[in-house]
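Action item from last week, closing it out:
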Amino acid sequence: MKKLKIYLLSLLLATSVAAPVAEAQDWGRLLQGGLELFQSFTVSDDQIKGYVSQFVSQSDKTNSLAPANSKYTTRLNRIVSGITSVDGQPLNFKVYITKDINAFACADGSVRVYSGLMDAMTDDEVLGVIGHEIGHVAHKDTKNAMKNALRTAALKDAVASAGGTIAALTDSQLGVLGEAIVNAKYSQKQESNADAYGYDFLKAHGRNPLVLCMSFKKLQALENSSGTASLVSSLFSSHPDTEKRIKDIEKKAFKEGYKYPTTATATSKSSTKK
């Protein structure tokens, strides 16, 4: 790593030797920018987790966190019972008390579910959303979103100046980071892969994978309602390919013998196959 940094410095300095004196300041900015860009591309997984942990800690303080004896915490603990890690990364689950309809998962294993989402969905639908969000973590989508955020002008100076350590981010910098985590925009392929992960996640925990489609449809209905449209995040419903994603999941599920639950509480694999 050190040799690569020296090489980058040498390359930029060698190029700047031939520059006129009048352009010295511009080359200086280019050199500094090159170093910052280099550093942002070499942020380690441990550093990313450290920055995420800063955001989560701040987010838990600034949001209304459901206490341990809350009905929401009790319900979420029941929904995710037995789900403790993904790919060796320990998971921790908490609820934010808010009318907003959202959920997100982070690279450090933190999963946050909004009470507005829980109010709108059944237990299995909530688990489907969680599985989808964990899919983005498992596929490194959230880590890459973090790297992109750390390359922005608002964060790269702090990251670069910290070298190989973790900088203490300001509230405004944490806000930029939070935007990248909570409202991340993923590609169609990334969403499709997260859907597939959520599908298998539900099956692995004895649920009907079609509840993921039910989550999609419910979010779409809420977004189209004048009373709740502003509360719905971009979780699923803002993607123009949502209908195709629903059909793709249905096609796979129907082929495997699943059908939509006849009751809101139908969960077991045996009771939902044709």
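Closing note: Confidence is low (pLDDT under 50) at residues 2-41, 264-271.
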